[in-house]
Amino acid sequence: MKSHSVDIGGMKLSIRSTATESHMRRLTDLVNGRVRAVRAGAPSVPLPTALALAAIQIADDLCELEDFAVRERREVAAEIRRVAGVLEKGIAGLDRWIEAAARPDGKD
């Protein structure tokens, strides 16, 4: 674990994490951007409230992405099942063709 010094909403924090410096900077930039957006819409909002609202917005984004990922996995699974069905039909057709070719008279 590594100690990272970060600035969130003007508060200096020390965070222990396995994350890289660039990843921590990306995270703090994201949070600070949300805090600035909250404060731009409501300049008198106290910092703790702005942080809470930013956290809720980020959590909402995460939930939307998780829902999207679930929908995508379901769509991919349905497509895999569809393709598997097509392949099974194709294999069955090949099996019939091979069986017919193996007959002495070569007829279907």
Q: Any descriptors?
A:
two-stranded antiparallel ribbon; 2 strands; alpha+beta; 108 residues; single chain
Secondary structure blueprint with pairings:
Elements: E1 2-8, E2 11-17, H1 21-41, H2 47-102
Antiparallel strand pairs: 1-2
Structural class: alpha+beta
Helices and strands, in N-to-C order? EEHH
Helical content band = over 70%
How would you classify the quaternary structure? single chain
Count, helices: 2
Shape: elongated
| Average pLDDT, all residues | 94
Q: Report strand %.
A: 5-15%
CA(first)-CA(last) distance = 70 Å
**Number of folding domains?**
1
Low-confidence stretches: none
Widest sheet, order of strands: 1-2
Biggest sheet statistics? 2 strands, antiparallel
- Count the E strands: 2
Q: Roughly how many Å is the radius of gyration?
A: 28 Å
Structure description:
- The structure is a single chain.
- The chain is α+β, with helices and mostly antiparallel strands.
- It has one domain.
- The protein is built from two helices and two strands.
- The protein has helices spanning 21-41, 47-102, and strands spanning 2-8, 11-17.
- The chain has a two-stranded antiparallel ribbon with strand order 1-2.
- Strand 1 (2-8) and strand 2 form a beta hairpin.
- Helix 1 crosses helix 2.
- It starts with a strand and ends in a 6-residue tail after the last helix.
Give me a quick take on this structure.
The chain has 108 residues and is α+β, with helices and mostly antiparallel strands. It has one domain. The protein has helices at residues 21-41, 47-102, and strands spanning 2-8, 11-17.
